[in-house]
Write a structure and sequence with these properties.
single chain, 363 residues, alpha/beta, Isopropylmalate Dehydrogenase, two-stranded antiparallel sheet, 12 helices, 14 strands, 40% helix, globular, binds 3-isopropylmalic acid, binds manganese (II) ion, oxidoreductase, EC 1.1.1.85, magnesium ion binding, NAD, IsoCit/isopropylmalate_DH_CS
């Protein structure tokens, strides 16, 4: 088993360092190799996703990814910006299925921006399609308009598109995930989020998800427009079970869902292809404003390691051990700044990582 470690930029290096400590406590046989990615790779190699980094990721069973990006790169040509590294990894590895669970720990209901009764016990799963949609659709670019409201003016355009097989495979992923959750006591429901009332792309989406749903009679399917889904997420988030949606809607809704749980600093994610390879990263970004200050929450990255063990490395016991340790440090009252509240103990990034390691050694 080979794990590629790509810390990236900003808080990426700090949080990945803690996740690697956790990985090393497990007595498992695997090789790890690190490489630069994002702005850090641009500085040293002149490209955010150098050939060598891409090759390392493609040859690995799993990739542990930190975060990329910094405002100082905002003026670079788009292909050289740090964000292109994660987009390039998703595309080149074919990581089409993005799992973004939003789980509210009992210990953190007070940290949520919503009333405790709306989030206590919250456990939903957003499945975001990750290699299609307006993120990757061609053509895109800038040109002088020849029609529209202002012919002759400079304009920019992107293309939203999905093919039937792209929708079919993500729909299968969602129904299977709902089935698995149902077997573990879940509700067994998929909510497909679209904008079929306006967009042709999402009418096809809705039609295809409906057709695939017929193969899963044990799973309930409902459809929701994305604007309504955004509202329902902050009105009654517990009404959702599995949410499946496209790349852009999933990007936006998963950030909103993340905040319900107290902090986006708690949320792991997995991006999978059809070969069992996966990229595991926290749902949050590189947070350059707090980078290097030992204040970032490493738990999302540590929990991403648990997802890696479960999805790519077939080590569910080790995954459960990490999750139990995270639960235990929260019960001990340890909190990084993002989840701190009165009566709890404020700790830094490294202290939090070490606390998890310690909790793991206890069992
Ligand atoms: C995410 C991020 C990325 C995205 C950026 C960094 C390209 O926001 O993983 O959600 O938009 O997908
Ligand atoms: Mn995002």
């Amino acid at each position: 088993m080979k794990i590629a470690i790509l810390p990236g930029d900003g808080i990426g290096t700090e949080i990945v360092a803690e996740a690697v400590k956790v990985l090393n406590v497990l007595d498992l046989k695997f090789e790890t190799e690190s490489a630069l990615v994002g702005g850090a790779a641009f500085e040293s190699h002149g490209h955010p996703l150098p050939e060598s980094t891409l090759k390392l990721a493609m040859d690995a069973d799993a990739v542990l990814f930190g975060a990329v990006g910094d405002w100082k790169y905002d003026t670079l040509d788009r292909p050289l910006r740090p964000e292109q590294a994660i987009l390039g990894l998703r595309k080149n590895l074919g990581l089409f299925a993005n799992f973004r669970p939003a789980i509210c720990y009992d210990q953190l209901t007070q940290a949520s921006s919503l009333k405790p009764e709306l989030v206590s016990g919250l456990d939903i799963l957003i499945i975001r399609e990750l290699t299609g949609d307006i993120y990757f659709g061609q053509p895109r670019g800038r040109r002088i308009a020849t029609d529209g409201h202002f012919p002759g003016a400079e304009e920019a355009f992107d293309t939203m598109r999905y093919s039937r097989p792209e929708i079919e495979r993500i729909a299968h992923v969602a129904f299977q995930a709902a089935r698995k959750r149902k077997a573990a006591g879940g509700e067994g429901r998929v909510t497909s989020v679209d904008k079929a009332n306006v967009l042709e792309t999402f009418q096809l989406w809705k039609d295809v998800v409906t057709q695939i749903g017929l193969q899963y009679p044990d799973i309930a399917l409902d459809h929701m427009y994305v604007d309504n889904a955004a509202m329902q997420l902050v009105r009654a988030p517990k009404k959702f079970d599995v949410v499946v949606t496209g790349n852009m809607f999933g990007d936006i809704l998963s950030d909103a869902a993340a905040m319900l749980t107290g902090s986006i600093g708690m949320l792991p994610s997995a991006s999978l292809n059809d070969k069992g390879q996966g990229l595991y990263e926290p749902s949050h970004g590189s947070a350059p404003d707090i980078a290097g200050k030992d204040v970032a929450n490493p738990l999302a990255t540590i929990l991403s390691v648990a997802m890696m063990l479960r999805f790519s490395l077939n080590q569910p016991e080790a995954a459960a051990r990490i999750e139990k340790a995270v639960d235990s440090v929260l019960t001990q009252g340890l909190r990084t700044a993002d989840i701190f509240s009165e009566g709890t103990s404020l700790v830094g990034t490294a202290q939090m990582g070490e606390a998890v390691v310690k909790a793991m050694s206890r069992d």
